[in-house]
Amino acid sequence: MYCRSTPFLICLILLLAHPTVQAQSFKKTELKKETVKIDTLSVSEDGSIETATIIRLVTKHEPVPDFTYSLKPFISLVQASFKDWAEGGINSLAWTTGLDAKSIHVLENFTWKNRMEIKFGQTKSEGITTRKITDIIDFETKLNYGKSIFKPEFVATLQTQFAPGYDYDVLGEPQLSDFFDPAYLVQSIGLSYQEHKQAAFFLGIAFREIVTSTYTAFSDDPETEEIETVNFKTGIRASANYQVDLAENITLESRLQLFSGFDHLDVWDVDSRSTLYLKLNDYLQTNLGLYLLFQKNASERLQLQETFELSFNYTLSNF
Q1: Taking phi first (over 0 means left), then psi (-120 to 50 degrees means alpha), and beta for anything else, what does residue 179 get?
Q2: Which of 10, 70, 126, 255 could make an S-S bridge to 90, C-beta 3.0–4.6 Å?
Q3: How far is CA 15 from CA 6, 142, 146, in A?
Q4: Do residue 162 and residue 147 come from a single domain?
Q5: Is residue 17 part of a domain?
């Protein structure tokens, strides 16, 4: 009866988002393994004995709290030193530090998720000035409603950097960017789809602002005579998140974001980040990263960044 007096699209969203009855989530923790019994199955003519061992696994199940978080500060160092090296080489030192943070807050039918990635690194080589090798501030917050696989969702993202960026390939190394110059802000509302924990998808209407101060090449519209410091567009945003454990200590995590303005639906901004984590122990891991970026305002070419890091980290988490 309710749907008869409600616009079709709103009715569809309400039906898809209608909460379903689900059992409370629990986390399983392995406590110990116990040998319960050893049986002799057979004895051969040469005296060898075939046995079977029964092992009991003792575990405990605890309810997952409504608020979960994970904080992972890390630092990585790469150093090379030469003395009387016949084949040549220069002394160098590179370092990267940062923080990966995640949180999930469950409020009845609402789920609020936050993710933040902060990373900054420099390199210093003999005879060359200190140069920046990585600089990332990436924040995302999501709020969705319902317990079904389709949920209405609001997403807001912010991407910028800490320190000035320079063009090291040009004489004089001119400055190209600075803190919050540019900054990319996107707010979107639409529907998310998640049937399994490993993958999630989103499609919706979005509002994107590219904010600059001095370096307006990122925000200026070449089709106008005025120099714009803020580039505002309304369009479509699509995203996909994928995380899978390939082995016991190997995890692949990928994020893809697409945006296209309604005025140019034939042009899409692409932001794709994939990282392969190889955990060596509780404090040491290797990261292989691939970052693909296409933003026509910044460059007509597809930008590519590859990283390989051996990092020391410590995780603070209640899950």
Answers
A1: beta
A2: 126
A3: 12, 21, 10
A4: yes
A5: no
Token pair of 31, please?
């406590």
Residue 16, H or E segment: helix 8-17
Tell me how far apart the alpha carbons of residues 64 and 26 are, in angstroms, rounded to a whole number: 5
Whether residues 235 and 308 share a domain: the answer is yes
Half-sphere exposure for 291 (CA within 13 Å, toward CB): 10
Side chain identity at residue 249, one-letter code: N
Phi and psi angles of residue 222, each rounded to the nearest 5 degrees, phi first: -65, -15
Q: How far is CA 82 from CA 75, 93, 129, 150, 219, in A?
A: 24, 12, 18, 58, 45
* Tokens read off for 86: 């016949």
pLDDT tens, 86-135?
A: 666 778 899 999 999 999 999 889 999 999 999 999 999 888 889 999 99
214: CATH: 2.40.230
Partner residues linked to 177 by β-bridges: 165
Question: Does 55 share its domain with 76?
Answer: no
Alpha helix segments (H runs only) across 102-209: none
Residue 223 DSSP one-character state: T
| Residue 245 pLDDT exceeds 70 | yes
Query: Which residue in the block uniquely carries the two structure tokens 């409504």?
Result: 66
Q: How far apart are CA 303 and CA 319, in angstroms?
A: 36
Domain boundary among 64, 94, 122: 64
Bridge partners (DSSP) of residue 10 are none
* Structural element, H or E, at residue 78: strand 67-80
- The answer on 34 and 101 residing in a single domain is no
148 and 186: one domain?
yes
Range of the domain at 37: 25-64
* Pair of tokens at residue 254: 């990928």
Q: Which of 38, 64, 90 is the last residue of a domain?
A: 64
